């Protein structure tokens, strides 16, 4: 949710009415979540200036661990430098910490592709947003669950009952440190997860909903 919201924000900055905007002080502390959307809190260090150049050699985008050669455009500006700077900062401050964790197994290869492509700046912001939207579609539609054996038929459904407190076990990743609380697309996915964990004998489907509904 955080990474997708950040990419949508960077897409807007890359195509803003003022031109491509770069955030010069790109740090996690410069952002807050408001109603599930990432917002920039400090615009003092935002700029629409793109680096001037005479030749391609003038257009190297330098970071502490990597450098990227860019093209000098016919108007004497380093092509896409603001967009690429924002995107690589998103990769090193957000994507590397958030994308590899907690996603359903079937979606992790797609997120790894995004991680690798933005880390090498093979993707621009348009391609990155498109890739994130594809993952979101697979997740919200449940398409990532296709071609799996059915496990729910092995369980008995009891409505209106609650398991005795203290019978839960701890798992990772979990929304609660007291037990095993996971998000699933359906009861069928819950059954598949429970079936794969030897400690799991039963599961409860609650009314809680994730940000995707």
TrEMBL record:
Write one Gene Ontology MF term: non-membrane spanning protein tyrosine kinase activity
Cross-referenced InterPro entries? PKDCC
Give an example GO biological process.
skeletal system development
Alphabetic keyword roster: Kinase, Signal, Transferase
**Chain segments annotated as coiled-coil in the UniProt record:** none
Task: Please give an example of a GO cellular component term from this record.
Answer: extracellular region
Q: Which residues form the signal peptide?
A: 1-19
Report what the protein is called: PKDCC kinase
Can you name the source organism? Answer: Anhinga rufa (African darter)
């Amino acid at each position: 949710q955080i990474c997708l919201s950040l990419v949508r924000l960077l897409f807007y900055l890359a195509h803003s009415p003022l031109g491509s905007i770069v955030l010069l002080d790109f740090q996690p502390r410069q952002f807050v979540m408001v109603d599930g959307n990432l917002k920039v809190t400090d615009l003092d260090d935002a700029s629409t200036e793109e680096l001037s150049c005479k030749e391609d050699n003038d257009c190297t985008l330098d970071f502490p661990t990597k450098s990227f050669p860019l093209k000098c455009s016919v108007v004497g500006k380093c092509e896409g430098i603001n967009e690429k700077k924002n995107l690589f900062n998103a990769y090193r401050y957000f994507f590397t910490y958030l994308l590899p964790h907690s996603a359903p197994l079937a979606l992790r290869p797609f997120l790894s592709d995004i991680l690798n492509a933005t880390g090498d700046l093979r993707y621009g912001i348009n391609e990155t947003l498109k890739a994130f939207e594809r993952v979101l579609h697979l997740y919200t539609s449940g398409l990532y669950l296709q071609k799996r054996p059915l496990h729910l038929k092995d369980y008995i459904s009891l409505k209106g009952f609650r398991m005795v407190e203290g019978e839960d076990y701890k798992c990772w990743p979990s929304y609660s440190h007291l037990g095993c609380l996971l998000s699933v697309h359906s009861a069928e996915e819950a059954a598949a997860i429970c079936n794969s964990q030897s400690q799991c004998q039963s599961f409860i489907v609650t009314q809680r909903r994730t940000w995707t509904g």
